[in-house]
Amino acid sequence: MIQDIRPEDIERESFRIIEEEFFARTGRHPVDFDAREFAILQRVIHATGDFSLTDSIRFHPQAIDRGLAAIRGGRNLYADVGMVAAGIGSKLQSAFCGRVLCRVGDAEVARRARETGRTRSETALEMASGDNVGIVAVGNAPTALLAAIDLVRQGTFAPDLIVGVPVGFVNAAESKELLVAAGIPAITVLGRRGGSPIAAAIVNALLKMA
């Protein structure tokens, strides 16, 4: 049956339904989770309609605290694609003075990528590494996530948090496994699933907490 509900109440009702159906869909209770982790998972489910992500989402123990510190400290967020940036919008800058950066479409990025034979995603990430980036949000390109991991390991990039949820069949699952193994403060979804809506949902949940 179609519900008669005011637009401003739709999200609240959606979150109520997620919590109500959570056990039936997953076999687990919301209280089984850290409250902040469940708040992020709930927003991810809201963005995707997929309760099964409960089994594959992973949180580094320091991830949420580090992400909140970056937001509250006014550090910038780097998004690997425009869809992630659009999903976050201006909320970061308006509330905390940080900016959402996405350079994959820049002409200079395209030029350097052609010269080096690397993808635009990894080239853009590397070029943004000196821009006071506190959070890296990767929803599309495994090459961007791999570049972020390499730069952190080299000591030339120091984001507080990596939200690494690239989607796809080539190196997506492998890049996320490498992220977890590296011990970098991160939030990820294991396997091939992921995407820009999930990356944006995780960041938006952190913004709401902050």
TrEMBL record:
<dbReference type="GO" id="GO:0043778">
    <property type="term" value="F:cobalt-precorrin-8 methylmutase activity"/>
</dbReference>
<keyword id="KW-0413">Isomerase</keyword>
<comment type="pathway">
    <text>Cofactor biosynthesis; adenosylcobalamin biosynthesis.</text>
</comment>
<comment type="similarity">
    <text>Belongs to the CobH/CbiC family.</text>
</comment>
<dbReference type="InterPro" id="IPR036588">
    <property type="entry name" value="CobH/CbiC_sf"/>
</dbReference>
<dbReference type="InterPro" id="IPR003722">
    <property type="entry name" value="Cbl_synth_CobH/CbiC"/>
</dbReference>
<feature type="domain" description="Cobalamin biosynthesis precorrin-8X methylmutase CobH/CbiC">
    <location>
        <begin position="9"/>
        <end position="209"/>
    </location>
</feature>
<keyword id="KW-0169">Cobalamin biosynthesis</keyword>
<protein>
    <submittedName>
        <fullName>Precorrin-8X/cobalt-precorrin-8 methylmutase</fullName>
        <ecNumber>5.4.99.60</ecNumber>
        <ecNumber>5.4.99.61</ecNumber>
    </submittedName>
</protein>
<dbReference type="GO" id="GO:0016993">
    <property type="term" value="F:precorrin-8X methylmutase activity"/>
</dbReference>
<dbReference type="Pfam" id="PF02570">
    <property type="entry name" value="CbiC"/>
</dbReference>
<dbReference type="GO" id="GO:0009236">
    <property type="term" value="P:cobalamin biosynthetic process"/>
</dbReference>
